[in-house]
Amino acid sequence: MSESEPRAGREARTDSEESQTDKLNWDAVGVVASSRYRGLALVALNDSPATPSDIAETADEDIAHVSRAIQELKEHGLVELLVDEDRQKGRYYGVTADGAAVAARSTPPTRMRGWSR
């Protein structure tokens, strides 16, 4: 089979698509896919920076689950705290470049009420 022929059982991809797939952190994709709360938080933060309570309220989920999910995403380098670490209230988070790449490959959890894609 030549380089330009499609692989068996797969559509041919452009060099750009292959490059993007190769650069994607598949461990991070798995981390997000294995928890609906992490998926919910990442998709929400990819839309715009928010606090855990904003996400929990919009998605009608428990704040403890959302806060834990955001901390796990932060540990994996997918989200970052946008305000001073010492701040107790109004802790806004946003996605990192890696987080945005993973969010682009993710589908929102079906129970998300406040977001639609």
TrEMBL record:
- State the CDD domains in the record: HTH_ARSR (cd00090)
Stored SUPFAM superfamilies: Winged helix' DNA-binding domain (SSF46785)
Q: Where is this region: Disordered?
A: 1-23
Q: Which residues form the signal peptide?
A: none
Instruction: Check the record and name the InterPro entries matching this protein.
Output: ArsR-like_HTH (IPR011991), WH-like_DNA-bd_sf (IPR036388), WH_DNA-bd_sf (IPR036390)
Return the protein name.
Winged helix-turn-helix domain-containing protein
